[in-house]
Amino acid sequence: MWRRLYLCLVLVRLYFALSPSYIHPDEHFQGPEIIAGEVFGYPSYKTWEFTSSQPVRSIFPFWLIYGWPLTVLKWIWEGLGYGPVPPSIAFYTLRLLMFLLSFILGDWAIHELIPTINQRRTAIILVASSYVTWTFQTHTFSNSIETLVVLWSLVLIQRLRDNTQDTQASASGVLAFLGVLGVFNRITFPAFLVIPLAQIVPGLYYKPLRIPVMLFVGLLTLAIAITMDTEYYSGHRPHLREFHKDAVITPWNNLAYNVDESNLAKHGLHPFWQHFVANLPQLIGPAIPLLFVSSLKNTLFWSGVIGIAVLSAFRHQEPRFLLPAVPLLLSSIKVPRRGARWWAGAWVVFNVFAGILFGIYHQGGAVPAQTWIAQQDNIDTVFWWKTYSPPRWLLDGKNHEVKTMDLMGTPGEGLIAQLTGDSACESAVNGTLLVAPSSATFLDAFTGEAGGSSELVFSPQWQYRRHIGLDDLDFGDDGVWPTLHRVIGRRGLTIWRTGRPSRVRTPEEFSNLTGSSF
């Protein structure tokens, strides 16, 4: 029975992996946006993390995780005579890759880490039924990669801890490699291994040959990672004699940036309890009470708890930072027999709701909108309003032709002012597009039948209904029910073509224009 349930949950995970939801900008701008530009030659948009004089993101894990699959895809696609790889194909290839990594490596690691059959089945089902596994783990987050590296580091540590009779050179070398990869991927990685790493110290005493193996593999991986970063950011391959002066060590830059609270203030400061009190409940919901009353206080449990505690020392705290802790804590839970059905019902409702929200509707129209825009001709400028930053790499190399204006939370009056200044005559060949949520009632005065602007004409071009932007919630001004009715009832993302009218229109003409179907 549990195998059938597990197979169904795997299919659910695949469905969400292939849904174009958009959880956070970092899933694009800290990976695919950069690597797609390198592999396919697209003009890519680089955030401050890559353009700073002290860059904080390493190119090493990006190439290792995303670079080679995209390169192989390019060889196969072009080898079959299909021409350049469409960005949509590359996008879903990476999503499928993340699904396979989560399904194969993530679930396999949990199987290895849990010794008893019953607890192992419970852990696998809990992790497989978590919306975090369905959504976050199948998106291209560095946190998702961190989760897999943490899990397999724990597997190798457990093997080394339980067998002090053999040197286990392979396990020692792979652990050293994962250690370097984990740190270059995210500097928070060691926080989840504080206790487990202490457990392999006796094995190093009984089998000291493990130490040179770890040092050799670790230093070699470190040299490769630093060389790749230095070449990427400096534009030339470093020479050995000047390596100590030219080397770009991104983890060090990242740590130096994050220990300065004035830097973190730019991204938002949170109280030290944010992770435990707010972020963790958002991720595992009904599992929170069981952590206190019905859980195994084992290595996995304390690895997750201590990892969260260490991350709480940094004032900028987001839920996705805790992704590695989710499978660790869920794997330590024992579902009590008393009230099990009620708890299981709450667990299902919580994850189905969160899965649909974050896996389907959350900014779900941004990726399809970019794909549609990439197929259009004669577009000069695209304004994005009240959405996440659009991934430029999905424009199929048209970045130099199409100017993307990311207005995010700009007031409505500012939006209209910019559109008025940029839009050409509606009869012009080249045009300006506006991408905005259908729930943005401010635009009703300009696009609806009740009103109109003598300076702008809005012509609807495209709409995607499975789109909800939580940034559009305004409970303070509109109230709870009216806000939910607007954001959910009028869900969707719409693209308008804007232009200045070539002549003054009559009310009947304007009504016919804005009332057109699309």
From TrEMBL:
Signal peptide positions on this chain: 1-17
Bilayer-crossing residues are 58-77, 89-110, 169-189, 209-228, 342-361
Topology with regard to the membrane? Multi-pass membrane protein
Superkingdom, natural source: Eukaryota
Q: Which residues form a coiled coil?
A: none
Compartments where found: Endoplasmic reticulum membrane
Name the top EC class: transferase
Per the record, the pathway is: Glycolipid biosynthesis; glycosylphosphatidylinositol-anchor biosynthesis
Listed InterPro entries: GPI_mannosylTrfase (IPR005599)
Q: What is this protein called?
A: Mannosyltransferase
Which UniProt keywords are present, listed alphabetically?
Endoplasmic reticulum, Glycosyltransferase, GPI-anchor biosynthesis, Membrane, Signal, Transferase, Transmembrane, Transmembrane helix
**Entry similarity comment:** Belongs to the glycosyltransferase 22 family. PIGZ subfamily.
Listed EC numbers = 2.4.1.-
